[in-house]
Amino acid sequence: MLYTGGTLGMVETPRGLAPGADLAGWLDRLLDGTEMAGTVGMTSFEHLIDSSNATPDDWRAIVDDLWAHHDSADAFVVLHGTDTMAYTSAALSYALTGFGKPVVMTGAQYPLGVVGTDAAPNVTGALRAATSGRIDGVAVFFGHKLLAGPRATKTSSWAYQGFDSPAVPPLALTGAPWRWTAPAGTATGWADPEPYRRHDVLVLDLAPGITASRLAAAFDPLPEAVVLRAFGTGNAPSEEPGLTDVLAGVIASGVPIAVASQCVQAEVLPGRYEAGYALARAGAIGAHDMTLEALYAKLVFLLCQGLDGAELADAMSRNIAGELTANPDRPLAQ
User: Fold this and answer.
1) How many Cα atoms within 13 Å fall on the side-chain side of residue 103?
2) How far is CA 257 from the centre of its chain?
3) Domain check: are 170 and 205 in the same one?
4) How many distinct structural domains can be found in the chain?
5) Is this model's pTM higher than 0.90 or not?
6) 223 and 158 share one domain
């Protein structure tokens, strides 16, 4: 088990909640008398972080720690703050396709020292999932649900079922016994990936009334890549004077624009409607049914691999770790 920080292990301080609980002692007491007593080792980041402060450098540190302990454990649990857990789970999914052992992420909405906390059921559920022999790759366990790592998104800042996977069903639901679902699709993996580092990827939401001049200002200076959260299936306000010209100019300059949807469930199909045709014609990349977190992490991952241009666009449509469904006729999660 790797502890990176987050609400689960926080304590009250004069400046609010901050990491500092005796997590190892708590875990020993939690597992005492169970079949897993004495079977779980723990490492911690030297500098524990609130996940709001996480960056791709922290993704790299987690990957490095997991590989450093690869041969000393059969399964791995990563304790992480909830704010950016879905970004990290997607990032780990791309980087660890060759890891060969299950990695389950979890955290909590309440610290472990609060009466009624969800820390204990989330940690024990993650341990059960990781040691089940039923999963490989990266997953998220939270609120009695096991979700595919590159499909998870945070849906609530307060509910105990704070994560979901809008495009696909959960991998498992807890119960007596657990109810398991086969993972959707086939992933291609990525051999020997280069490590994560920061890249300038801009995430931008469209809104009714946005002007071309405001949009142009957001691209000055040009980023390395753009996630454009558009409407519906990937539509933009095409009648706004000059707006699609701005986007076309950014793409023509060599900056990839990946078009996502602001809808929780969507299949992005640039060009399906006239309002999205200009983006498709300019060479924008459709995000399929990827979450924002999976899309952002994928762009960073591919930039770290040195990809650009047509190679990057092609890789964005490749199902590396189960992050997208290539078939637009697939059933939506219920």
Assistant:
1) 29
2) 19
3) no
4) 2
5) yes
6) no
Instruction: Say yes or no: 207 and 289 in one domain.
Output: yes
Residue 39 appears among annotated catalytic residues:
no
Look up tokens 């280069």; give the residue. 194
How far separated are the first and last CA of the chain, in Å rounded? 32
Q: How confident is the model at residue 326, as a pLDDT?
A: 72
Cα distances (Å, whole numbers) of residue 196 to 48, 248, 308: 19, 29, 16
Which residues lie across from 294 on neighbouring strands?
Answer: none
- Sign of the four-CA dihedral 237, 239, 241, 242: positive
Burial of 180 (0-12, 13-18, 19+ CB in 10 A): middle
Q: Which of 180, 211, 235 is the last residue of a domain?
A: 180
- Is 329 inside a domain boundary? no
- The conformational region for residue 150 under phi > 0 = left, psi -120 to 50 = alpha, else beta, is alpha
- Which pair of tokens denotes residue 317? 């449509």
- Residue range of the domain that includes 15: 2-180
Render pLDDT for 146-163 as a digit per residue (tens, 0 to 9): 999 999 999 999 999 999
- Per-residue pLDDT tens digits for 299-328: 999 999 999 999 999 999 999 999 999 765
Say how far apart CA 195 and CA 303 lie, in whole Å. Answer: 11
Instruction: Give me the catalytic one of 7, 88, 106, 131.
Output: 7
Residue 36 sits in the same domain as residue 158: yes
